[in-house]
Model the fold of this input.
Amino acid sequence: MKKKFLFLVTIFLGFGIFMPDAMAATTDPQFCVRTSAIWQFVGYGIFVLKILIPIIIIVFGVIDFVKAVLSGDDKGVKGAAVSLLKRAIVGMAIFFVPTIVKVIFDMIDNITGGLNEIEACETCLLDPTSGSCDAYIKQAEDLRASGN
Done:
């Protein structure tokens, strides 16, 4: 597993070091603007998950503890506590998704030479309710209307 990860990191870093001009030339500067509605939709999905996952964890945790207490089994209570802890750890991971995405977008921006090509993707994914994202969607509609 470690070897595969190191191999992938080496490949991505290698492309960034040896081919920054080629990567910048092949990216469409309007791609993120054209797809801003999709990024906004995914951003809303992440926003909803941030609300639902804690609620689901609490509900399932209460159900598990009630079952364990009603059964009167000490091992059941311990198992419910372990299960709740695992769910909480997995649930907390959803709150790190925006940070990870931000780091990835910053790496891509550094590789492409800081051309701000991905600003629309980043804005609509991480802050889908912002006016900036709505402006990118309007800009995409204008691009479609003009045929570009």
Residues 109 and 115 are 7 Å apart (CA to CA). Confidence is low (pLDDT under 50) at residues 12-26. Residues 28-146 form one domain. Helices lie at 2-18, 20-26, 31-34, 36-71, 74-93, 97-111, 119-126, 131-146.
